[in-house]
Structure formats: structure tokens, C-alpha cells
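Sequence only, no structure available. Ideas?
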Amino acid sequence: VQAGDELLTLDTSESRLEAARLDDRVSQKESAETELRLRLDETIASLRAQIEQRKLDAQIVHYTADQKERLRAEGLIAEQDALAAGAIAKKTDIELRQLEEALTRAIRSREVQLTASRAEVAMAQRERGESRRQLELAMLRADRAGILTSIVGEVGATVRRGDVLARIADLSTYRVEASISDVHAAELAAGMAAEE
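Reply:
I predicted one. C-alpha cells follow.
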């Protein structure tokens, strides 16, 4: 046999089904990661938009509170109206801080969730790679040129991991001993081909 020659093929139907299942699992994990990223990015974008809106609202409310405070100082409006406008301004500031904190948490949460999702995808890809490797190993090929000295000859034989299925003798170390009658010894020369 020559190096790379196929010696025998094992039944791989179950392994092929497993490999196809793992291909689907990797695709599902990758799709779920993309969906998660989009959903988290949308949440962060929404929080940023809310913060910008709240900042504009805060500017308006603070302007109104300042105006009412000036009018109160001049005695043109009741103190209660000025205090109410000041309270609304403080409430708006608190809401703005809460939104900014929510954005910070959402960004941290995004990173944690995406890291976990990437780990799941990587694990599924490793499982798929191992499955493909096992499929490649199911076809027994000669690892070197030589003489096939034994092979599992029974079709349908059950084999386990680690079982010896074939033996190849290396031609470079193969040695034949023979005996020949003295009558024919004169006809021999180094490098002659042997016949059965």
C-alpha cells in the first residue's frame, strides 16, 4: 500500500447525523448572538435617546424655575408657584441621573451577555470541530507506504476506540530470510527480484 491509501471505512451514519446536528447548533448559537447584540444595542440606543430628550426637558424646566424664582423675588407670583417649579427641576435632574445610571448598567450588562454568548458559540464550534475530526478518523488510511500485514477482515465487526484495525510493515525495515540450494547460489546477485 502507498501512504494515504484507504484501507477500510467505518460506518459513520450516526456520526454524520451528530455532525449535522452540531452544524445546526452552531448556526443557532451564532444567530442568537446576533439577535442578542441587536436587541442590546437597541436598548442602549433607546436609553441614549431618552437621556438626550431628558436633557432638553431639564433645560426647559430649569429655565422656567429660574424665571419663576425671579418673578417671585419681584413679588409677581406666589412663593408656592416658584417652589413647585424648583421641585419639578430637581425631579427632572433625578430622572436624568437615573437614566444615565441605567445606560451605564445596560452597557456593562451588554458586555457580560455578549461574552457569555460568544463563549457558547465557541463551545459549539469546538464540539463541531471534534465531531468533524472523529468523522475524518472513521476512514482508515495508510499512514505510510508498506506491506499490509493484517486488517480486520470481518464486515460488520464491532470496533472500539483504540482497537488495532490494520498493521502495515515498513518496507525500509522489512527483511526476508530464505534458503536456497547450493546449485542455484551461483545465479544470485544483489538486488534481484524475488518470485514465489
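The first helix runs from residue 13 to 73.
Hope that gets you unstuck.
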